[in-house]
Every structure is written in C-alpha cells, then in structure tokens.
C-alpha cells in the first residue's frame, strides 16, 4: 500500500506492519474521527502511518470458499495454508517461515508438527 498525506506522514518512510483489508475501515474512521462500528476485527493502522506506537493483531485469518476452498493464517513470521479443503476436511496444511522464505517455496510443516 502507498499512503500520501503531506504534513502528516513522513516522506520516504516504509513499514513492515502486517495488516489486512479489514483494518482499512477502522483506519478511515480514525482519520475522519467517526465512531467505529461495533464487533469488527479490524485495527486502525493510523498510528503506524503517523510513526507512533501501533497495536498489532495476535494473528490474521482468511477463508475463501471459491476454487475448492482455501484457508490461511498468519502468526508472527509463520503462515499456514490449506488448499482444496471444501470437500476434504483432512487437506494437508502447508507451513512457511516468512522470515526465511518470503516466496513461500519451502513447506516446513513436517519439521514443525506442533506449530
């Protein structure tokens, strides 16, 4: 994502903050100073944009029912993925260490069964 807000966001800064699309609404509400809807999972990333201390997600979870069903979870540097799980409740879980494998080429699920 690219953010441009002269006098508010310091130019030429980058961030490794992990967020998801559901964080956009709380951020916009925060910017507009309007009340946030109740019972949502999103966290405003306005503090990160402003260079302040940012609240983090414990984890992120996605589920898609298209193309046979897909699930993904992000926990720190770990990402778990399950594909074609709609008709297979025992579909294998793939696990990636994003600190070492940003391209998700090395499935390390067998090396980390407890995780």
Q: List unreliable stretches of 5+ residues.
A: none
What is the number of domains? 2
Main sheet strand line-up: 1-2-3-4
| Main sheet specs | 4 strands, antiparallel
Strand content: 15-25%
Chain-averaged pLDDT = 93
Structural class: alpha+beta
What is the 3D shape?
globular
Helical percent range? 10-25%
What's the quaternary structure here? single chain
Radius of gyration: 17 Å
Provide an overview of this structure.
It is built from two helices and four strands, in the order H-H-E-E-E-E. It has two domains: 1-57, no CATH class; 60-110, Arylsulfatase, C-terminal domain (2-Layer Sandwich). The chain has a four-stranded antiparallel β-sheet with strand order 1-2-3-4, with no helix packed on it. 11% of the residues lie in helices and 19% in strands. With 115 residues, the chain is α+β, with helices and mostly antiparallel strands. The radius of gyration is 17 Å and the shape is globular.
In short:
The chain is 11% helix and 19% strand. By secondary structure, the protein is of the alpha+beta class.
List the main descriptive attributes of the protein structure presented here:
four-stranded antiparallel sheet; Arylsulfatase, C-terminal domain; alpha+beta; 115 residues; globular; 2 domains
Mind sketching the topology for me?
Layout: H1 24-32, H2 46-49, E1 60-64, E2 70-75, E3 78-83, E4 93-97
Antiparallel strand pairs: 1-2, 2-3, 3-4
């Amino acid at each position: 994502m690219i953010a441009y807000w002269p006098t508010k966001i310091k130019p030429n800064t980058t961030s490794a903050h992990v967020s998801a699309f559901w964080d956009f609404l709380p951020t916009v509400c925060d910017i507009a100073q309007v009340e946030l809807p109740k019972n949502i999972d999103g966290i405003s990333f306005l503090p990160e944009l402003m260079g302040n201390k940012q609240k983090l997600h414990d984890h992120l979870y996605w589920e898609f029912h298209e193309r046979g069903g897909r699930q993904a979870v992000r926990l720190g540097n770990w990402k778990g993925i399950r594909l074609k799980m709609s008709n297979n409740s025992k579909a294998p879980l793939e696990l990636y260490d994003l600190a070492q494998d940003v391209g998700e080429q090395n499935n390390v699920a067998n090396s980390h069964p407890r995780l």
